[in-house]
């Protein structure tokens, strides 16, 4: 007969009686657990972003994946998780690779221009003299960029302007492509074994924090799904609208610029980089009016999307006011990097849930007792 302790399904085995630990054993056990967790994090720290993004995509896709699994239960072992992983590859990874490949293709011409500029300098454009404070700008350009000596001084003053930066960039891109591969691998296994993972996490949170642990975990999951939906839907809308505007204005590579706009829109005001690039390309071709129209429309679309549309998507799932959604996104990026786009609002949503329960604004295990409310009213 198989020993029950050998079962791998979470929650299928329970101890018949509580374990008795001496004080020394408890202290030693806690110390060993802390040391083991720290060692594990140190071992995996280079791959934690890949695991984090894989978990985020798995949480976001899980409701749709569950509906597909109920209709086709035989595909849960391989085909369904593979199809969903392929979907993420096609929708997110391949467009990003296309943008990176286009940038790498154009970088050859940029490298040649930079080499010529270092050898001969860059003459000041005539347009500078027609701008406000044009004489001062032209004088600065003459001293800083018009001579090889000025460019040399600038290259030493600006970090990352040195020769050989391209090799570091290529190394960084190779490292990030490796992380993308691990992210897709993690996503596949999280979808395939999602039920067991969710069951284990629920048991762990219940044992550690009781009822409050389950409520906090559900709120965090809702925040992650709402944030990802807001990023994807708003980014798709921004890319579609502004990509069409680039095409109507006559910008070259309008589709690629629209794709870049959609990808950069995940970062607050990041789409403005693509808008500025499109407007600059139009202005360089002499289409000043079209450049001004694209820049104005782009700033308006990005402002409305980042300040009003995206917070609605995220706030409906997390019950967060607009200000807290915006602070969660910006603060998350500052604290966690790109993954903070999702982690930031999730952390703020969990903190807001605990606060609402603590002050008695909604039901929960942290609600104040009647005595606490009476004492607060009396004070």
What do these coordinates show?
The protein is mainly alpha-helical and 379 residues long. The chain has 2 domains: 47-196, no CATH class; 209-379. The protein has helices at residues 23-44, 48-71, 79-120, 134-144, 148-157, 165-192, 194-209, 211-249, 254-264, 271-284, 288-318, 322-336, 340-358, 370-378. The radius of gyration is 27 Å and the shape is elongated. The protein starts with 22 loop residues before the first helix and ends with a helix.
* Low-confidence runs of at least 5 consecutive residues: 1-5, 157-167
End-to-end separation in angstroms reads 66 Å
> How can the largest sheet be summarized?
none
- SSE class: mainly alpha
Percent of sequence in beta strands:
under 5%
Gyration radius over CA: 27 Å
Number of domains: 2
SSE blueprint and pairings:
Layout (H helix, E strand, L loop, with lengths): L22 H22 L3 H24 L7 H42 L13 H11 L3 H10 L7 H28 L1 H16 L1 H39 L4 H11 L6 H14 L3 H31 L3 H15 L3 H19 L11 H9 L1
Helix pairs in contact: 2-3, 2-6, 2-8, 3-5, 3-6, 3-9, 7-8, 8-9, 8-10, 8-11, 8-13, 9-10, 10-11, 12-13
Please describe the structure with a list of short key phrases separated by commas or semicolons:
379 residues, mainly alpha, 14 helices, elongated, disordered N terminus
Give a brief description:
The chain has 379 residues and is mainly alpha-helical.
